[in-house]
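User: Show me a protein chain along with its predicted structure.
Assistant: Here is one chain, sequence first, then structure tokens.
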Amino acid sequence: MRLIDAQADAAPFEQMAFAGHQVFNRGDAAAGIRRVGRFEKEREGLPACGGEVIEPRVVVWCTGFAPDYRWIGLPVLGDDGYPRHRRGVATDAPGLYFLGLRFQHRVTSSLIGGVGEDAAFIAEQVARRCEALALA
């Protein structure tokens, strides 16, 4: 897993075509995104990545083939052990997003050919949150 420490940025998205979908790309530096190392542990409720404790504004947890939510120390899982969300936006933890969940929004949400539309939706939600935080 890689966490991204995203700073709010008012620069507009550049659009580019990717496999027939619209993908938004601002470039890491231009968007104020700083990539960090692999998630190692939690310190006082914050993620430690690459030996550094970070305070991300947004976390996107991409589940991969075998989901594992044990690391999430927040009350965001339902009785079934899966995240409570609406289209990948955690309902109980502002700033937490999921991508690649089975039936996240459609039957193909967890498949490589179907995750793109969900990814575009999550990217838009992240951008809106960052813009709202920048205005606050």
